[in-house]
């Protein structure tokens, strides 16, 4: 390898070798961790009980509490000889993940009809005439500001949170998918008709199959907005869930629990994103994203 | 002609700009010599006067007297506490409960220098369908969890002989910005615990009524001005000056308010966007220590220790002191007479009546 010259940074054709590339990709992580540790150490020097930036011991305790201890509002008291697995099953992070995860998955499932609707809007002129303008308008509504109305319609239990996610994300998805459907060359559709396809063959077997990988990619981009809406909903009114716990912990600066929770949510999102990506590659090897 | 005029006015502009720049340099230099303190406050009947105190110039008058500068900044309640614990502000308004479970429990040694008022009906438990305490278990109860609302609910249950049922309460943590809409629009949620002015908004609906409020537990929900102890004890004495100035200004403000001075009430009401009517109604259920004597007497009385003991046991029982704290005694409180509640080497919250007493004796 040629020696490194500073101009390589602005050279499109200069590639760092593998080792350097790996090291560079870790660099910002290390800087962040370093900055955090320095802040934490400084703050602990001033106040050994600081909670804003918990140190390693505090974090370890926080993680232990979230992974092996039941939520404070639960009645469950582990037996003295309860195994780690037993404790883990009743821990607060499992409880919160299950309830948040259920809301998330139900909303995800409710996006399927939205995608089908989008296919129809993009393909069938009558649907387009009826829905497109309304969805365009609805997409610009800030769902969070309609909460009092959502409360009337959906109550304050599960459905208002799910509705918040779906109302927040579905219009954007619909518009996005409609665009993809419209981008399918008209010639293909004409050709399919000449080969004796009926309307639904064209919709579901020609167009839908083609846009599906793009739809999945669009969904991947929308995971974060979905999680944001879920968090907003859980912080407004809830009695369990990941964001509920964070809201409660904030009341006494329980950053030792909040930080692990935030990282856990990040990991979950990453895992969902990765599995969707792998699924996409498996299902549509022909698709180049 | 036009050209010269233009260039003339332009050079005038430059001169003005240069002057301004110089002026700001000089004034910021001058400011740097004066110790500056920041007080954070949030919207509440008993704290709104801070807004008037600043607007009316009362605060500036007292700050000038002690040769310091005091800034007053409005926050959301939670944000003000965050800023205080992060040491971004020097003093902050908060309840006795938050003073104990936030800065004190997080190791930020704090001193309450003004005991401003206690909630005497500002916080309330409101029910539909004529529910009573013995029917609350199993019902959904909306409130902001881990705040004085939950404390009030628990005290209400205990005082009505329902202690055994405490664990059967189904609490729904609801943000205070949405709690009114969430309660009013859902007939299936029969109970809400919140504070004024939200309480007044909810009670405007005649089909619901209050079954318990803070007037039944007088002196337990205190509203304080808390200063970081390290600020108070600054070696150059500026912290002391700050405490004196702010106390002096506070009692001048409150005296005006108690005397019903129109501007004092109008601006204090405006601080939370309330009408004068509504603010007066809130003041009725706020037991203001209008004179320094009443505040000092309360702070030095044995009553405050009993009330604080209830609060600290509640905080500990609800895990509000954090993972690392194994006993309520780990966050100790010291009172004006020198007595300590908790472990002697772990004093974190101090009630200091010095400045209220000084105001009482006219020594500020």
UniProtKB/TrEMBL annotation, chain A:
**Location (main, coarse):** membrane
Identify the species of origin: Granulicella aggregans
* Protein's membrane topology: Multi-pass membrane protein
For this protein's source organism, the top of the classification is: Bacteria, Pseudomonadati, Acidobacteriota, Terriglobia, Terriglobales
Which residue ranges traverse the bilayer? 20-37, 104-128, 134-155, 226-246, 258-279
Give the protein family.
Belongs to the binding-protein-dependent transport system permease family.
Stated name of the protein: NitT/TauT family transport system permease protein
One Pfam family of this protein, by short name? BPD_transp_1
Q: Which SUPFAM superfamilies match?
A: MetI-like
Q: Where is the signal peptide?
A: none
Annotated ranges, domain ABC transmembrane type-1:
100-280
**Which Gene Ontology BP terms does the record give?**
transmembrane transport
Tell me where it resides. Cell membrane
The yes or no answer to whether the keyword NAD is present is no
In the UniProt record, does the keyword Metal-binding occur?
Answer: no
> Which keywords does the record carry?
Cell membrane, Membrane, Transmembrane, Transmembrane helix, Transport
Q: Which GO terms describe its cellular component?
A: plasma membrane
TrEMBL record, chain B:
What SUPFAM superfamilies does its record include?
Periplasmic binding protein-like II
Annotated organism of origin? Granulicella aggregans
Q: Tell me the leader sequence span.
A: 1-32
Location of this chain's protein in the cell: Periplasm
The upper taxonomy is:
Bacteria, Pseudomonadati, Acidobacteriota, Terriglobia, Terriglobales
Question: Keyword set for this entry?
Answer: Signal
Q: Mind telling me which InterPro entries this protein's record contains? A: ABC_transptr_urea-assoc_sub-bd (IPR017793)
Protein's recorded name: NitT/TauT family transport system substrate-binding protein
GO CC terms of this entry: periplasmic space
Q: Which family does it belong to?
A: Belongs to the bacterial solute-binding protein SsuA/TauA family.
């Amino acid at each position: 390898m040629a020696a490194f010259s500073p101009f390589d940074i602005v050279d499109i054709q200069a590639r760092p070798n593998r080792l350097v590339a790996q090291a560079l990709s870790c660099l910002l992580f290390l800087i962040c961790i370093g900055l955090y540790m320095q802040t934490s150490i400084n703050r602990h020097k001033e106040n050994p009980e600081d909670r804003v930036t918990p140190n390693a011991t505090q974090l370890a305790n926080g993680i232990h509490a979230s992974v092996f201890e039941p939520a404070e509002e639960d009645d469950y008291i582990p037996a003295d000889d309860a195994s780690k697995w037993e404790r883990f099953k009743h821990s607060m992070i499992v409880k919160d993940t299950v309830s948040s995860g259920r809301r998330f998955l139900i909303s995800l499932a409710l996006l399927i009809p939205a995608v089908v609707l989008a296919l129809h809007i993009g393909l069938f002129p009558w649907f387009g005439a009826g829905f497109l303008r309304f969805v365009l308008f609805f997409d610009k509504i800030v769902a969070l500001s309609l909460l009092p109305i959502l409360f009337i319609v959906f109550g304050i239990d599960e459905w208002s949170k799910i509705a918040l996610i779906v109302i927040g994300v579905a219009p954007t998805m619909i518009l996005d998918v409609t665009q993809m459907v419209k981008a399918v060359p008209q010639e293909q559709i004409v050709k399919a008709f000449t080969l004796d396809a009926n309307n639904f063959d064209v919709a579901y077997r020609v167009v839908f199959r083609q846009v599906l990988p793009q739809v999945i990619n669009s969904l991947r981009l929308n995971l974060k907005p979905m999680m944001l809406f879920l968090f907003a909903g859980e912080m407004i009114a809830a009695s369990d869930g990941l964001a509920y716990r964070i809201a409660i912990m904030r009341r006494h600066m329980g950053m030792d629990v909040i930080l692990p929770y935030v990282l856990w949510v990040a990991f979950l999102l990453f895992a969902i994103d990765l599995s969707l990506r792998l699924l996409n590659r498996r299902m549509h090897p022909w698709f180049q994203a | 002609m036009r050209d010269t005029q233009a260039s003339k006015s332009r050079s005038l502009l430059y001169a003005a700009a240069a002057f301004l720049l110089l002026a700001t340099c000089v004034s910021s230099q001058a400011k740097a010599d004066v110790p500056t303190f920041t007080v954070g406050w949030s919207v509440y009947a008993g704290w709104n006067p801070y807004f008037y105190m600043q607007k009316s110039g009362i605060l500036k008058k007292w700050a000038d007297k002690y040769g310091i500068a005091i800034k007053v900044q409005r926050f959301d309640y939670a944000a003000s506490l965050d800023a205080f614990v992060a040491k971004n502000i020097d003093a902050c308004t908060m309840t006795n409960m938050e003073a104990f479970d936030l800065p004190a429990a997080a190791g930020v040694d704090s001193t309450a220098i003004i005991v401003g008022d206690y909630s005497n009906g500002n916080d309330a438990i409101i029910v539909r369908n004529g529910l009573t305490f013995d029917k609350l278990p199993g019902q959904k109860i909306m409130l902001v969890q881990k705040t004085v609302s939950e404390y009030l609910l628990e005290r209400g249950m205990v005082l009505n002989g329902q202690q055994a049922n405490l664990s059967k309460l189904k609490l729904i943590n609801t943000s205070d910005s949405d709690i009114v809409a969430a309660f009013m629009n859902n007939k299936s949620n029969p109970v809400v615990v919140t504070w004024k002015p939200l309480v007044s908004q909810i009670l405007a609906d005649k089909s619901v009524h209050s079954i318990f409020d803070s007037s039944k537990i007088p002196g337990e929900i205190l509203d304080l001005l808390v200063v970081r102890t390290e600020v108070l004890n600054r070696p150059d004495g500026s912290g002391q000056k700050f405490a004196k100035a702010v106390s002096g200004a506070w009692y001048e403000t409150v005296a005006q308010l108690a005397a019903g001075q129109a501007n004092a009430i109008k601006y204090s009401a405006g601080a939370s966007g309330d009408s004068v009517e509504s603010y007066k109604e809130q003041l009725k259920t706020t037991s203001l220590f209008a004179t320094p004597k009443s505040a000092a007497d309360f702070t030095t009385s044995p009553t405050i220790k009993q009330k604080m003991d209830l609060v600290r046991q509640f905080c500990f029982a609800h895990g509000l002191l954090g993972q690392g704290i194994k006993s309520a005694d780990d966050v100790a409180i010291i009172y004006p007479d020198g007595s300590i509640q908790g472990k002697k080497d772990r004093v974190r919250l101090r009630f200091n009546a010095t400045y209220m007493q000084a105001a009482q004796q006219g020594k500020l």
